[in-house]
Every structure is written in structure tokens, then in C-alpha cells.
TrEMBL record:
Cofactor: a divalent metal cation
Family: Belongs to the HARBI1 family.
Signal sequence coordinates: none
Alphabetized UniProt keyword annotations: Cytoplasm, Hydrolase, Metal-binding, Nuclease, Nucleus
Protein name stated in the entry: Putative nuclease HARBI1
Functional note: Transposase-derived protein that may have nuclease activity. Does not have transposase activity.
Organism annotation: Hyalella azteca
InterPro entries linked: HARBI1-like, HARBI1_animal, HARBI1_dom
Gene Ontology cellular component annotations, sorted alphabetically: cytoplasm; nucleus
Source organism phylogeny: Eukaryota, Metazoa, Ecdysozoa, Arthropoda, Crustacea
């Protein structure tokens, strides 16, 4: 995560340049990394796509740099559960990042420091918000693409860990 006020504000400026969202310091999401079927508690490692994995929570900055990650939950674990039990969430709750915000998809809970899209946008402003949210949050998807392309063992087509 950004170290110090100057880096925090620079990260906010970098994200603001993408689609106009203020106060954003990271985009958050989970990704599945395939693993060999473990011998203990095998079923909890099977994800919604029916393969064994770890669900990894990642936060990246506007330049696709990974600034925080959690690697300890089996594939069946929901992204929101990982977030709710993360040290990063506790740090946000304590106010360590001042008025900074993360962008997450609809799998995350809406919180004062975690912005999610409107589930059913009705107004033009809500639709525009969702478009800008998507344009900004796609950075985490691109980060996963770069990571899994570079390290094939993290992608299902590259084998299992």
C-alpha cells in the first residue's frame, strides 16, 4: 500500500486520471490459482469453476503494480469473506489510509472505503458511475492477465502448483 501521504496522493492522482474517480488508491479482486488436489479437506479447495485452487486477494495500483495480497484461502472461499477477514480491511477501518477508497466488483460489500458498482442502475448518473467504475477497476483484471501470462503456473492452462 502507498507509504506516506505523498505516495498516497500520487496514487490517487494516477487513478483519477483513468476515469475521474477521486480518492482511489487501489483496485481489488480475487483470482484463482490452480493447485493439485490436497489430501486433507480436498472439497474446500474446489472453486465455482470446479477445479482445485487457492483464491488469492490482490490489490493493485493504477500502474498494475501489486500493492497488497492475501494468499491463504481455499478456492471455495468467497472474495467478500477474504476481504472481511483481511488485515487490509482492518487497516482501512482504523483510518490508516485517511479518506482513501478501493474499487471492488459486485462480489464485495459496499463500505465507506470500498466502492462497488450499482447493482441495478436506473438513473443516467448511476449508469455513468458504473461505466467509470468499470474503466478504472479493469486495471486489476489486466494485472491478473499480465501476472498469469508471465508466470504460467498461476494460470489453469499452465499446470498446477
Amino acid at each position: 500500500m502507498p507509504a506516506g501521504v505523498l505516495q498516497l496522493h500520487q496514487t490517487m492522482r494516477d487513478f483519477h486520471a483513468v476515469a475521474g474517480f477521486p480518492r482511489i488508491i487501489g483496485a481489488i479482486d480475487g483470482t484463482h490459482v490452480p493447485i493439485k488436489a490436497p489430501t486433507d479437506d480436498e472439497a474446500i479447495f474446489v472453486n465455482r469453476k470446479k477445479f482445485h485452487s487457492l483464491n488469492i486477494q490482490v490489490v493493485c495500483d493504477a500502474h498494475r503494480m501489486i500493492i497488497n495480497y492475501v494468499v491463504k484461502f481455499p478456492g471455495s472461499t468467497h472474495d467478500a469473506y477474504i476481504w472481511n477477514n483481511s488485515t487490509l480491511r482492518t487497516r482501512f477501518q482504523r483510518g490508516e489510509f485517511r479518506d482513501a477508497i478501493l474499487l471492488g466488483d459486485s462480489g464485495y460489500p459496499l463500505e465507506p472505503f470500498l466502492m462497488t458498482p450499482f447493482a441495478n442502475p436506473v438513473l443516467r448518473g448511476e449508469e455513468e458511475f458504473n461505466r467509470c467504475h468499470t474503466r478504472t477497476r479493469v486495471i486489476i483484471e489486466q494485472t491478473f492477465g499480465v501476472l498469469k501470462s508471465r508466470f504460467r503456473c498461476l494460470h489453469r492452462s499452465g499446470g498446477n502448483l
